[in-house]
């Protein structure tokens, strides 16, 4: 039986630390505030939004939701984002992605001020992450992966890490963050040959493919640490969701594994708040 690396104690530790930093800012008359930008009402956006609001409230931070109709036009939305970006009282901006197809998402992302870009939606943030610049915020999800590895004291230096997935929001930044901790990193994707064999070489396997239960027993070996980033509809349990790892098959083999739900996803909103508090400190010349 593998040890379960649950997200809750990790998120709780992050929130505890943030409560102190938020109180220090408030003592100076500054209230950190997150702006949440949503177009339409997709269920996974609403789900994440609900979690983000709760986390903000629990640490004494403020938030404001900016909601727009599904059919908003490019010009109006560009104007709205520009105004939100200029607001002095808003320190972090989370814009849900993907946007509806008729909008030019690349252009809209570029209007978010880099110093408020707490989920790495701009090329400026992506560049900072790539260059290991400490003022750049990596996306919240791969940062949550790193917070879990750190909290549970998983050694990374010199270890073989395999990242399954190369998206801009999860796979690629996860690889960069693992590299920063001196892991030897392999990135796999849909064209990778002998995928199970490559994954079996890992000491740490990070699964971010968006395919329910794709990682099965032939992808793993004893001693391995498995981090499951996936959030998919569970094909075997309608209405429930599951990870990219077939938990029942993999858990008996490996050493440590994150559950879904209750793993990476549950740390993501704590990281979002951590980034917003840091953005607030930097914007006020306090960090
Ligand atoms: N926990 C959280 O907070 C969050 C979780 N997620 C979840 O993480 C997962 C990944 O998300 P995201 O990165 O956005 O997904 P994307 O669909 O953008 O990327 C998936 C990646 O997996 C690769 N891939 C897809 N199918 C296969 C396959 N059969 N074999 C090998 N590689 C494959 C793709 O390869 P290629 O590039 O070649 O196409 C691509 O690089 C999803 O389940 C998503 O729901 C996402 C965001 C937040
Ligand atoms: N720019 C952008 N960044 C995102 O990171 C982003 C996005 N857009 N659009 C929507 C998706 C969805 N998403 C989730 C993150 C966490 C949970 C989450 O909190 N999951 C917990 C919840 C547990 C529970 O309470 O049941 C868990 O998996 O344990 C869910 C969904 C981020 N997304």
TrEMBL record:
GO biological process per UniProt: L-histidine biosynthetic process; methionine biosynthetic process; purine nucleotide biosynthetic process; tetrahydrofolate interconversion
EC number assigned by the record: 1.5.1.5, 3.5.4.9
Keywords: Amino-acid biosynthesis, Histidine biosynthesis, Hydrolase, Methionine biosynthesis, Multifunctional enzyme, NADP, One-carbon metabolism, Oxidoreductase, Purine biosynthesis
Function: Catalyzes the oxidation of 5,10-methylenetetrahydrofolate to 5,10-methenyltetrahydrofolate and then the hydrolysis of 5,10-methenyltetrahydrofolate to 10-formyltetrahydrofolate.
Residues that, per the record, bind NADP(+): 165-167, 231
Domain Tetrahydrofolate dehydrogenase/cyclohydrolase catalytic: 5-119
The protein's name in its UniProt record: Bifunctional protein FolD
Species of the source: Carboxydothermus islandicus
Lineage: Bacteria, Bacillati, Bacillota, Clostridia, Thermoanaerobacterales
Catalytic activity: (6R)-5,10-methenyltetrahydrofolate + H2O = (6R)-10-formyltetrahydrofolate + H(+); (6R)-5,10-methylene-5,6,7,8-tetrahydrofolate + NADP(+) = (6R)-5,10-methenyltetrahydrofolate + NADPH
UniProt xrefs under CDD domains: NAD_bind_m-THF_DH_Cyclohyd
Pathway note: One-carbon metabolism; tetrahydrofolate interconversion
